[in-house]
């Protein structure tokens, strides 16, 4: 089984590393990071307040990346993205565009998403998406 990491989950995992607590355990799950999530994470590195903080963030990301797969944005994912956008738009319940791409990645590869606690509600708006939440205390 696989699980897709949202940026909000990456942030929670990074915070657990900063607190020197064990990172979130996903057991035997294959962990997938959509390319858009990797880009958002790299933006966090580029916008870090200091070179030291940027280096620490990058090191954390590389640790996580070594245990994951980066999923490219494909034409199939684009089709799912259009479907999800249309569904949410018709329901009057749009979510951020990048999160639609994350949900589309999940649908495309047939797995759930792991999110931080603040993003749970809007991911739950997506039909047929299994949502798991990283504990803020992890």
3D structure, described in words:
This protein is α/β, with parallel strands linked by helices and 138 residues long. The chain has a single domain (2-133), classed as 3-Layer(aba) Sandwich (Rossmann fold). Helix content is 52%, strand content 14%. It has six helices and five strands; from the N terminus they run βαβααβααβαβ. A five-stranded parallel β-sheet has the order 3-2-1-4-5. Helix 2 packs antiparallel against helix 3 and helix 4 crosses helix 5 (97-109). The radius of gyration is 15 Å and the shape is globular. The model has no long low-confidence stretch (mean pLDDT 89).
CATH class: Alpha Beta
> What's the number of domains?
1
Distance separating the two termini = 22 Å
Round the Cα radius of gyration to an integer and report it: 15 Å
Biggest sheet, in brief? 5 strands, parallel
The computed structural class is alpha/beta
Record the strand order, biggest sheet.
Answer: 3-2-1-4-5
Average pLDDT rating: 89
Oligomer: single chain
The strand count comes to 5
Name of the CATH homologous superfamily: 5'-nuclease
The helix tally amounts to 6
The CATH architecture assignment turns out to be 3-Layer(aba) Sandwich
Report the portion of residues in β strands.
Answer: 5-15%
Any descriptors?
single chain; 138 residues; alpha/beta; Rossmann fold; 6 helices; 5 strands
What's the quick description here?
The protein has 138 residues and is of the alpha/beta class. The protein has one domain (2-133): Rossmann fold, CATH 3.40.50.
């Amino acid at each position: 089984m696989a699980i897709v990491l949202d940026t909000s989950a990456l942030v929670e995992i990074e915070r657990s590393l900063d607190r020197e607590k064990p990172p979130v355990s996903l057991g035997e799950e294959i962990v997938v990071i959509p390319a858009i999530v990797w880009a958002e994470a790299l933006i966090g590195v580029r916008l870090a307040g200091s070179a030291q903080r940027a280096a620490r963030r990058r090191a954390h990301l590389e640790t996580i990346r070594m245990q994951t797969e980066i999923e490219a944005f494909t034409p199939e994912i684009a089709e799912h993205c259009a479907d999800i956008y249309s569904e949410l738009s018709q329901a009057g319940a749009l979510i951020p565009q990048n999160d639609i791409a994350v949900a589309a990645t999940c649908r495309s590869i047939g797995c759930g998403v792991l999110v931080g606690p603040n993003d749970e509600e809007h991911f739950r708006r997506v039909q047929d998406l299994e949502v798991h939440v990283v504990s803020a205390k992890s």
